[in-house]
Amino acid sequence: MKRLRDCLLLILLCGTAPAFAEQPSQAVELSLFPDYRAQVQLADATESGSLTQAPPQSTIDAEVGEFREPLFTPNKMHQYLGFGSIALATLALLSPKEEEGPHSAFATGAAVLGGAAVASGLIVHGEDVGPSYGVWDPDNQHAVLATLGALGFIAAVAQGGEENHAVYGVAGYVAMAIGIRLNW
Amino acid sequence: MIHSLGRCLLLGMLLALPFSSNAGSGDLTEWLSLKRLGEVEPVANARYAQECSACHFAYQPGLLTARSWRKLLDAKALADHFGDNAELDEAVRQEIETYALAHAADHSNYKRSRKIAAATPADAAPLRITENSYIKRKHAAIPAELVTGNPQVKSLSNCSACHTRAAEGVYDDDTVFIKGHGRWHD
């Protein structure tokens, strides 16, 4: 029963992730400006060396209008797992520190989702990370910090009940939060 | 022993904090804000958007480094802008150049811009976004018939043909729709 409740909670939390994923629009409304597509496309000239006429605006709009950004893709699932992990870690941080209670359940959930986020990240974005990109690469930093975060959560759960297990939890929280921020 | 390791881990992470941001360039307060920085900074200058989109997609300044923008937006260079005359009134040109330089990839905290800046050799000033090794790598798996062989796309530099949220600076795979093909994922 308790596990079922925890699972439902995880699903609910993951469901809030699309709201985080929505980027507030800061862009200038380009539709206010002349229809660049109907004019000469400089883009074509850059590669083919010749200028060509772009398809009419109405044709493009109709096709793009059919497209709806999917809510569930491998990339989105990776994001949801990461957000779910940090959300549960926040709840674990805020909940009463009892050995058998919500604190333990939230912390376990954070460790499980954190581990799953790292695994899914390696599968979905494995090609974007690697030593050849260097330490300044934001994807490398994201991967290292999120992995440290998940390991911190796992260590905290494994040490649960011991006096200093919070060190792992808090360290993991900081690493996971920065790791997510770097790619969000 | 295990507790000492934990403290070392925490210390290491705290020490890593300053290096996690785009140290030395970009605005730290922006990084600490809630603003999304995962993609490319959208164009927020009306003059820039108006002048560039008069002829083509208004490529975000974060898609090239400052060195490239300086070369591209030089008054003489604009007279031969990829084979076309794109000369501007000097005051307008300066405003556009100032905006582009301030928001160029190497001055940005946005993730994709950072990747572009890192993939641009320090002494290079490529004029074409499609010449950047990061951009090339991200598009390497796409068959040519879906891009150059696709009459509705024609060129990799026609970003907004497939990236449905390109105008917002969003270029992730989930927002790609290749006309005549459909969704795309690596």
What integer is the average pLDDT of chain A? 77
Helix/strand/pairing category of chain A: mainly alpha
Rounded to an integer, what's the Rg of chain B over CA atoms?
19 Å
Q: State the separation between the terminal residues of chain A, measured CA to CA.
A: 35 Å
What labels would you give this structure?
heterodimer; A: 184 residues; mainly alpha; 8 helices; 0% strand; globular; B: 186 residues; two-stranded antiparallel sheet; 2 strands; 39% helix
Report what the structure shows.
The complex is a heterodimer of chains A (184) and B (186). By secondary structure, chain A is mainly alpha-helical. Chain A is built from 8 helices and no strands. The longest helix of chain A has 24 residues. Chain A is globular, with a radius of gyration of 22 Å. Chain B is built from 8 helices and 2 strands; from the N terminus they run H-H-H-H-H-H-H-H-E-E. A two-stranded antiparallel ribbon of chain B has the order 1-2. The radius of gyration of chain B is 19 Å and the shape is globular. The termini of chain B are far apart. Classes of the chains: A mainly alpha (184), B mainly alpha (186). At the A-B interface, helix 3, helix 4, helix 5, helix 7 and helix 8 of A face helix 1, helix 3 and helix 7 of B.
Describe the secondary structure blueprint for this structure.
The complex is a heterodimer of chains A (184) and B (186).
Chain A lengths: L1 H14 L1 H5 L20 H7 L8 H10 L7 H21 L7 H24 L12 H21 L6 H18 L2
Helix pairs in contact in A: 1-5, 5-6, 5-8, 6-7, 7-8
Chain B lengths: L1 H19 L7 H5 L13 H8 L12 H7 L2 H5 L10 H13 L8 H8 L14 H7 L37 E2 L3 E2 L3
Antiparallel strand pairs in B: 1-2
Helix pairs in contact in B: 4-6
